[in-house]
Amino acid sequence: MKLLFIGGTGTISAAISRRVLELGWELWHLNRGNRSPESWRAPAGPGKFHQINCDISREAEAAEKISGLEFDAVADFIAFTPDQVERDYRLFKGKTKQYFFISSASAYQKPLSSCYVNEGTPLSNPYWEYSRNKIACEAFLMKVYREEGFPITIIRPSHTYDERKVPLGVHGKKGSWQVLKRIIAGKPVIIHGDGTSLWTMTSNADFARAFTGLVGNIHAIGEAVQITSDETLSWNQIYQAIANALGKPLKAVHVSSEFLCQAGPDYDYVGSLTGDKAVSVIFDNTKLKRLVPGFHAEIRLDTGIKETINYILAHPELQEEDPEFDEFCDRVIAAQARAVKETLNV
């Protein structure tokens, strides 16, 4: 198999890159070359790895760099808007047997008519521009598949995590460390809503095994496929698993998503909570398992989270302070406590 990844070193794509090379396939990365293969821990073999240093947004340069190359599959992990997938269509039409677009499960309708979600669930998200752009990308790709036979496969991930970042519902602009630090210090942490809404976290290693099962799969052409774990947990359980991995008690403060959206406009909680994580979702992965017989997610959340936290604790460069978010948490928690006290005194 000969594959080209646009990007290739992110949370999802790095794990797939490792898996591809483990399978002995030939892999090209087309990106700006800011991360060396060693940084995303590419194995020594048996697959072959090639780097193409290029900013994909420079279409003419990209076309020149891939001139004469053809691939069994191309996957774009950094396409977010219709103009970007239209560019990919121009670049790779006739040069690949399969084109993968990484969409998002956040594209499913909000609010949901049912918490049970599969690929047939309508796509509509008035709360998050990110999701609306993904929907528009899907619409363009399905159009060129139906009209011209462009061999697309649409992938819809949900909340996928790796060893470098703990998946959370409420966090700041600098990632997960500040929440971990609050738990370690015995400070309260914010959980949106009452913490009982249901969510699914997927390890990138599990995601990679499912993804490679779709590569070269004729039954996946023209299809949209969601890739998630089957494990469903409440947000209270998720945060408890994080605290358990840290060996610290969880001091949870539940704050309504609506309040967080109004109190933290700089964090886009309207999109990430109302348009995504605040909605209970149970994924039906029947289609994925039909396309990739024998696949099931192997990494349970509590096990995966413990491995991630141990990795972060062992790598100080990942422990990025976020005093602005820390102060935001303190203000929100204090404001809610004052409101409760004033109400009780009425």
Q: What fraction of residues sit in β-strands?
A: 15-25%
- Kindly report the name of the CATH homologous superfamily of the largest domain: NAD(P)-binding Rossmann-like Domain
Main sheet makeup: 7 strands, parallel
Q: Nearest-angstrom radius of gyration?
A: 21 Å
Coarse shape: globular
Q: What CATH architecture of the largest domain would you give? A: 3-Layer(aba) Sandwich
The total number of structural domains is: 2
Instruction: Give start-end ranges of low-pLDDT stretches.
Output: none
By CATH, the topology of the largest domain is Rossmann fold
Class by alpha and beta content = alpha/beta
Question: What's the level 1 CATH class of the largest domain?
Answer: Alpha Beta
Reading the helices and strands in chain order gives EHEEHEHEEHEEHEEEHEEHEHHEHHH
Physical arrangement of strands within the biggest beta sheet: 3-2-1-4-5-7-12
What average pLDDT do the residues reach? 95
Q: How many DSSP helices?
A: 12
Fill in the keyword field for this structure.
346 residues; alpha/beta; Rossmann fold; UDP-galactose 4-epimerase, domain 1; 2 domains; two-stranded parallel sheet; 15 strands; 40% helix; globular
